Structures are given as C-alpha cells and as structure tokens.
Amino acid sequence: MNTRKKKQGYWLTLLPLYLFTIVFVGAPLVYVVVLSFLQRAETWGVTGQFTLQNYRQIFQPVYLQTFVDSLKLAFLSTALITLIGYPFGYFMAKLSPKGKKRMTLALMIPFWTNSLIRLYGWIIIFRANGPLDQLLIALRIVDQPLKLLYTYPAVVVGMVYALLQFMIFAVYSSAEKMDWSLVEAARDLGASPITAFFTVTLKQTLPGLLSGIILTFIPSMGLFFIADILGGNKVVLVGSLIQDQLVKAHNTPFAAALAVVLMLMTTLLIALYRKIAGGKELEGLV
Amino acid sequence: MKRKKIRPSHLFLALVLALMYLPILLLVIYSFNESKISSVWGGFSLKWYQQLLADEKMFEALANSILLGISSSVCAAIIGTLGAFGMSKVQSRANTAVEYLATLPIMIPEIILAMVFLAFFSLLGLPFGMTTLILGHTAFCIPYIFMLVKARLVGMDPSLTEAAKDLGASEVRVFFDITLPLITPAIASGMVLSFAMSFDDVLISLFVTGVNVNTLPILVYTQIKTGVTPEINALCTLMLAATLLLVLVSAWLGREKQHSIETKGE
Asked: How far is A61 from chain B (nearest CA, A)?
C-alpha cells in the first residue's frame, strides 16, 4: 500500500514530461506524417483524400536532385569536419590538464556565439574585395578578386565552421576516456606509431568519431540558412525546399512528405550508430 | 609529461583555433569602422553603436529574446528535471519511448522540427507569437536539461537518500533536502545551455513566430538577407560580448559545465 502510494507520487513527477512530449512532440510528428499522405486542396490547405502523390513528387528529377545535392554537401562538409576535427579532438585529449581546461574554454566561446554572428564574419571575409581578396592579391597568389561570397566553396566553409565543434567535442570526449597504456603496450610490442594508431587508438575513439559524424551530418542536411546567407540562391538544399514549399508554394502536404523522408534518413543514421556503438547514446552532445 | 616542448600537434591546434576566431575578430574590428563600405577602413568610429542604440526595433527584439530564453529554459528545467527524477524511480517501458521522443528534438534536423511545429500550431489554431515561440523552444531545451540531470542522478550515491529515509524523512523532504541540492549544478548548467540555444535559434523561431514578434536572431537574419549595414557589426559585437560574459559566468558556476561538455550525458 505504502509503496504503491510512493509509486503514484513518482508518476506524478513524470506527468509534465509525458504530457509535454506527447502533446508537443509526438502528436505534431504524427500529424505531419498524416499530412504527407493527404491531397493538397486547390488553393490553401488540404483535402481529406488519401494520396501517395506527395511521395511520388519527390522522385521528380528536380526534387531528387535537391536531395542528391544536400547529401553531397553533407558528405563533403562531414568529411572536411572529420579531417580537421578528429585530429583536433585527439591532440586536445593529449594536452596537460591545464591545457585541456584552457582549450575547452577557448572552444566554448565560438561554440556559444550566435551562429549567425559567426557566419556573418565569413561574409565580411568572402565579400568581393574583402580581406581575403585583398590578402591574396597582395601576396600575388591571384590577380583578380575571387568573389567567393555566394559560391559553393563559401557554403562549405560555413557548414564546416558551424558544425566543427560537435566533432571536436565528440572525439575529445572519447579520446579523453581512452586507455593510453594500450597504445604503449602496442608500441612496446613493436607496432609502429601508425599501426598502433589504426589498431588501438582508432578503435577506442570510434564511438566519438561516429557520433561526431552523425552530429555534423544530420544538421548539415537541414541548415538551409547557411546556404542562404553564404550561397545566395545558388545552393538549394532539402531545408530550403521545405521552407519554399511551406511558405511560398503553400504546399503543406509536399513539405510534410519531404520532412518525413528527411526524418527517416536521420532515424536510420541514428539507429545505425546505436547498432555499431552497442546501444550507446551519442557522445559529446551535451 | 613532456611539457614545454612545442610539438606539431600544438601548431595544428593553434592554427585551427586561430581560424575559428578570425571571422569573429574581423567582425569586431569592422564594427568600429567609420566607412560604410566594409572593404575600406575609414578610421575608428562609434557611430554604428550610436545608430544601434537609437534603434527601437533592436531593443524590442532583444527583450523578446531574453524573455523567450528565460521562459523556455525555466519551463524546460521544471519538466526535464521532474521527468529525469521520475524516470530514475519508476521503471516502465513507456519511459523508454517517452525518453526517445523527448530527446528527439535535438537529434533531428531543426528544419523538421520547425516545419512540424508550424503545421501543428496552425492546426490547433494557436496565435503565432510569444506563446508558440516558448512552446517550440521548450521542446528543444528539455533534452539538454533532461540528459544532464539524468547523468547526474545516475552518478549520485544512493546511500545518501537511503540514509535520509532511514532517519524518517518523507519522500518529498528527501527530494528537496537531498536530491535537489545534488542535482542543482546539472540543472543550472542545463539552463545556461538551454538559454544559449534558445538565444541562438533562427530556424524554429523563424517558422513559429508571429508577424509582429521579432527575436534578435530573426532580426539579424532578415537584415543580413536584405542588404547589410555596418550596424549589424555593432550588434554582433555586443552580442558577442554578452556571450563572452555568459561563458565566463557558466565557467565560474563551477566545473560542472566543462565536465559535462567533456564527458557528456552517459
């Protein structure tokens, strides 16, 4: 009787989370899935008619291309982020305790700075005849302004810059927990530093690396405002497509279908990670 | 161990860090630029700051952002903390499902959440504005608090609460006297993180805000998109200063924050 009463008390503490999550996360998601199977009304809104048309529409070459482009950009950004972020997180874990603390603080400041502000800094750099052009001309590397703003490379830089910290913190958190004596043992047994890295270090930091990849890959498919600000209208991503369909074309069901597909891709990636990492949560998320 | 030696790895770290700070630094420098054209240095000036301070829309947006950040992090703190506490006490299969759903908002691309909220809020007929903003932001703030508090509860010594119970304290008393003080650092760092995330958010805000309610990021975004004035440089510099202050405060709040960034909720 007493324990039962206690249990009820604990359920009461769970109530707000259950309610909020079900009403404001679960229900909206279900609604969007339903929406994606409904027919668009002539002018605005939807009719109650069931249809697969919205999903079929995704396979039209124009829209398919957007998905391919988004994936390409996400792959490219994630690859670059891995190339920079993995060694960074790894080297950071090798710093002295004091060095680690300082480095964490140094990383926190850009991490916590509004992402628009940080991107805006790149607008200044990339602008025609801006600091970058002036520097390159002064160094005689180029003789004409590159005018990098509103180009694909600018978008890639923006993506890398906005998401790099996720990779760094994820790799760092798993490299931190690493058992360095295993590396030493491998070295003592005659492994070259490179062999030791691939057989011991990489394996131990894999959860961090994988979660870093997911934490950069997933958002990079949806962060359309980066493509918007740094790429002008030249780079169209799934994110911008969803916004366009929703705000400009008022085709809510199609936007819903796009969101559902993006969502499925994301869920698949996370499930894949959980499988490889043995059911663990993503590293370095909070 | 080998301490003072400068290794190639240190050079790499320094180089990447320098690149990270470069755009921020340039932004600050150009905010003091007299010239309207950003590629020309026209001498030191504070005129953009003066112009900014006279801008009423900016102050309104700032007030909105602060109100939004505080409201959503407080709501998320209450819901997330109670939820994490309850889940540590009651084992149920429903918990797994709810936990998955509750943390979903920071796992999926923001654009999905933004679109989902927009569609759902119009279905409910909620008036778009501060209410919808707070609801949306609370949804993505809950995961941070929930995960940090959950990690903290797992790491807590169970003998502390048992001792209190043995001495006759009621459940409620144990929660307020023992558990809550122990998880307060986690709640605090979760709230700071939530506030920062809310203050930073463009996408979701853009979708769920009403016609007349601007937040600071929305204002910056629309200004960047529609022709840039150096006023933004000044605004960004001020926001940067505020961020710096926030980071220092959270670092001062204890190593809790750093620790959680390093080891993350497990």
From this structure: 22
Q: Which residues of chain A have a pLDDT value below 50?
A: 1
Following CA atoms B89, B93, B99, B101 in sequence, which dihedral angle do they give, to the nearest 10 degrees?
-150
Which among B24, B87, B239 has the least Cβ separation from residue A14? Answer: B87
Higher confidence at residue B75 or residue A200? Answer: B75
- pLDDT of residue B263 exceeding 70, the answer is no
Confidence of residue B2 (pLDDT cuts 50, 70, 90): very low
* CATH code for the domain of B256: 1.10.3720.10
Number of domains chain B contains? 1
**Residues from chain A contacting residue B174 (CB–CB below 8 Å):** none
Rounded to 5°, the CA angle A278-A283-B1 comes to 110
- CA pair distance A158, A230, nearest whole angstrom: 7
Between CA A280 and CA A11 the distance in angstroms is 26
SS3 for A3? Answer: helix
Domain that holds residue B208: 55-263
Q: Domain residue spans in chain A?
A: 61-239+254-276
Whether A221 has its CB under 8 Å from any CB of chain B: the answer is: yes
Q: Confirm whether B32 is domain-assigned.
A: no
Instruction: State the nearest Cα–Cα gap between B182 and chain A, in angstroms.
Output: 18
Determine the pLDDT at residue A259.
Answer: 93
CB A32 to CB B258 under 8 A?
no
pLDDT at A84 (0 to 100) = 96
Say if B42 falls within a structural domain. no
- Check CB contact of A256 with chain B, cutoff 8 Å: yes
For the residues of B60-120, what is the DSSP string, one character each? HHHHHHHHHHHHHHHHHHHHHHHHHHHHHH---HHHHHHHHHHHGGGTS-HHHHHHHHHHH
- In the chain, the amino acid numbered B252 is W
Does pLDDT of B1 surpass 50? no
Cross-chain residue pair A262–B112, CB shorter than 8 Å: yes
Contact B83 A87 (CB under 8 A): no
**Cα separation values, A22 from A264, A269, B125, B142, B230, Å:** 19, 23, 18, 13, 45
**Residue B30 within any structural domain of the chain:** no
In a domain, B16, yes or no: no
- Lowest mean pLDDT: which of B33-37, B119-123, B199-203, B214-218? B33-37
Distance from the Cα of A11 to chain B's closest Cα (Å) equals 6
- Overall CATH class of domain A61-239+254-276: mainly alpha
Nearest CB to A256; choose among B119, B217, B225: B119
B20 to A120: CB separation less than 8 angstroms, yes or no: no
ipTM computed for the complex = 0.83
